[in-house]
Amino acid sequence: MNNNQIIKDNLDYTLFSWGKQGGLNPINASHAKGSYVYDRDGKKYLDFTSQLMNVNIGHGDQRITEAVARQMKEVSYVYPGMATDVRGKLGKKIAEITPGNLTKTFFTLGGAEAIENAIKLARMYTGRHKIITHYRAYHGATYGAITAGGDPRRFPVDSQAMPNVVHVENPYAYRCPWNSSSMQECGERALAHLERVIQFENPDNVAAILFEGESGSSGCLKYPPMYLKRVRELCDTYGIMMIDDEVMSGFGRTGKMFGIDHHGVTPDFMCLAKGLTSGYLPLGGLVVTDEIAEYFNEVPMTIGLTYSAHPTLCAAALENIRIIEEEDLVNRAAEMGQYIETEVEKLKMKHPSIGDFRNTGLLGCMELVKNRNTKEPTTPWNAKPSEMEPTLRMASKIRELGMFTFVRWNWIFIAPPLNVTKEEVDEGLKIISQAIAIADEYCN
What we know:
- By secondary structure, the chain is of the alpha/beta class.
- The protein is built from 13 helices and 15 strands.
- The strands form 3 sheets. A 7-stranded mixed sheet has the order 4-10-9-8-7-5-6, sandwiched between helices. Strands 1-2-3-13 form a 4-stranded mixed sheet. A 4-stranded antiparallel sheet has the order 11-12-15-14, covered by helices on one side.
- Helix 4 (85-97) packs across helix 10 and helix 12 packs antiparallel against helix 13 (422-440).
- The longest helix has 22 residues, at 329-350.
């Protein structure tokens, strides 16, 4: 089939995410290998955000294909009430690599389902109903998950939002809501704000606090070092469950196996997806502590999915984790993240539009501004179409130069596969440098 017909069939018979359907011009992907995706004209694109920050082991690793094929020769699917060898092995492996006493996993098909079921179980377990989350966060696109996030993509469905979600401000040090003079001070004020909200909302009504293990698509906002420890303490003080969303920050992305590992904290619930299979097949998981698991030994756990613990998907995940461990990709991510940070510091000398760069391992974001003193963003948060000119120009330039990366408002994300090479990083930063030269034009 020729290229034009493939594009036509995609546009005529399928719907694309997050936008109007007219005027789309998607990359016509043919194949992918390592850090590159190739279109059907032979052009290659450096994948600098691991697609949606999920292809952690890189593209085209046939060891996943072989593991899936082996499993399908045995059993492709049984209903979730049956036991399989691969289900038990994956559950055991997740218990080994997650922190503290997180021991049992309920498998889902993705991150949003993991979030939905974490909220359900937290409410069942505590008998409470309110969920506290950050405004600057994204937890998925199903009704409950999109309500829990503060991302403006929830606005069109706000009229049917899940009830009893309460949002609080993030400790966003670069633009601190309390005009703090340091990251530490911003964190202290954010924690005081969080505790006030808990008290205003009646602690006996708060089932859970749901935060990301490490901020992702909301701008990679770094937590002050003490922040999550103190959130854990607040949860313990008030009998509130701590739900850790590791959907994007898990499986080595941040230079630790999980984002929360940077903070020495064990949550009550941990939500997984994305890097669990590196995107090769759709799988998510909700991991709970032994205490929560024991509670449901006597109380019915009324959640379920047709494809929970799907054997074929579990096989992909088990092999993916083996590859991450065998190739030491967690430490590779930490090392390459340090290299990127050093190189971006050099770019700051060249480009006045780089206001801030926030990065942990290989989960990073450049924030572009018109003026470093005023911090006026190159493109405002949740910009109207008429305000998007700089962003659209930069995104177009990046694609033209042979790169795929996540460009949003005044943010450009850097989150390549964990096995990215220095040469590929240099190539990517060279392309980004040419793109943000456009942002420099808007500086004043």
